[in-house]
Amino acid sequence: MTNDYPLDLSNFKFIGRRIQVSAPGKVILNGEHSVVYGKLALAASIDLRTKVEINEIDLRNKLVVQFDALRLSFQYDIQKINEVLLNHPLPLDSEDLLDRVDNFVKLTQPNLSPTETLAVKAFFYLLIGILGSSSIQLTSLLVTASTELNAGAGLGSSASFTVCLSAALLQLIKSKTPEGYFSIEGYKPITGELNLIEFNKQDLDWICQWSYRAEKIIHGTPSGVDNTVCTFGSVVEYRKGSLPKLIEATCSLKLLLINSNVPRETKKMVAKVAEYRRKYPKVLDHLLESMDEVSTTVIDKMSELSQLSGTNTDDIKKIHKSLAELFTINHNLLNSIGVGHKKLNDIVDILAEHGLSGKLTGGGGGGYAICLIPPKFDAVCLRQAVITLECHGFDVVETKLGVRGVTLDIFA
Ligand SMILES: Nc1ncnc2c1ncn2[C@@H]1O[C@H](COP(=O)(O)OP(=O)(O)O)[C@@H](O)[C@H]1O
Ligand SMILES: C[C@@](O)(CCOP(=O)(O)O)CC(=O)O
């Protein structure tokens, strides 16, 4: 199969449903990697989004797909997909579905790069699992994904992508089966009034669950924090197996996102920590436990911060100093478990020279670092820090935290 990127989208005539959804990326403020082992993490959505569109098109018997972030386009005959993947539908939680998709992608697109393969597998897994759990037939579709996030850099691009795909496919089946029932046994019916204007709590729970399953393909053993934040948005206290808790206070925090421009893959970094833990279980468990303590202390400090009024300037300063120190401790702990990088340390050093504190975020080994900007921080000094970082080849953007989760932006 050839890569036809970029497709001339004006060649397609839209004839039926038009669905566009978007979901934010995320930053982990504290607790990356330790969260995989059941420790506490604090994460927040950011103001950079992924967008997925599904359009029914006037092109007989074709599924056309384009992923801008990977500069990848491909087309399939629907008949082939039906024969191999959909004729005997399997629910999303079936191991056999994963094997079926694996073989299908290997056979039909053997020349994809490893990153492309992961994205294409996640796509087919969701498409087949979700459509296969409903009574609707696959019709000719154009599916496009684009993003403001740098993929594979620690800002949750993969979760943002799988959340959007899950949401767009859910909207498709909701709009085509107004009775709102999945047809496969074992799937609970969507109950309550059918709402085609926005996603309700029950929809969001499905989207979150499905994207978690697809994240497993891309990540290996995801903790679930990324898909939770990308689905629900906000600032979230997250521990695997417990209900996520929203934290309001941190929404006013400002953050710099600094791209080290060093490529890496989350899956490999998570595997590296697992290997360290296998070799040195006691050492690693103590380090992971310390990360848990860091997250707990940060959450306590943020809750103290939310109780102070704007006039307690000394107390506010003191808490921000503690948050900065805890960021540094967290960064050093992440270095100790093997997910640091020299460039990330350079970023943290440059920030420190300007009176700021930073840490790596997400999978590490490259990708992004983050820096909390204390309130009333000297604007000239902040500008200087940004200029110095840029002179060293790092890209810097300021972002808002705690934005909305997945949204239905167009439905026609
Ligand atoms: N917008 C997108 N379109 C297609 N695939 C994507 C997109 N965003 C992420 N991916 C997939 O997710 C992988 C990156 O995941 P990961 O290494 O976890 O990084 P991140 O920290 O950005 O989530 C990419 O290599 C690709 O396979
Ligand atoms: C390392 C980890 O804690 C976060 C990964 O974040 P990202 O995919 O690199 O954005 C893994 C996880 O929580 O699943």
From TrEMBL:
SUPFAM superfamilies: GHMP Kinase, C-terminal domain, Ribosomal protein S5 domain 2-like. The keyword Lipid biosynthesis applies. Its EC number is 2.7.1.36. It is found in: Cytoplasm. Pathway: Isoprenoid biosynthesis; isopentenyl diphosphate biosynthesis via mevalonate pathway; isopentenyl diphosphate from (R)-mevalonate: step 1/3. Keywords: ATP-binding, Cytoplasm, Kinase, Lipid biosynthesis, Lipid metabolism, Magnesium, Nucleotide-binding, Steroid biosynthesis, Steroid metabolism, Sterol biosynthesis, Sterol metabolism, Transferase. Its main location: cytoplasm. It catalyses: (R)-mevalonate + ATP = (R)-5-phosphomevalonate + ADP + H(+). One of its GO terms (biological process) is cholesterol biosynthetic process. GO terms for molecular function: ATP binding; mevalonate kinase activity. GO terms for cellular component: cytosol. InterPro entries: GHMP_kinase_C_dom, GHMP_kinase_C_sf, Mev_gal_kin, Ribosomal_Su5_D2-typ_SF, Ribsml_uS5_D2-typ_fold_subgr. Pfam families: GHMP_kinases_C (PF08544). Gene3D superfamilies: 3.30.230.10, GHMP kinase, C-terminal domain. Residues 320-379 form the GHMP kinase C-terminal domain. NCBIfam families: mevalon_kin. Belongs to the GHMP kinase family. Mevalonate kinase subfamily. This is Mevalonate kinase. It comes from Diabrotica balteata.
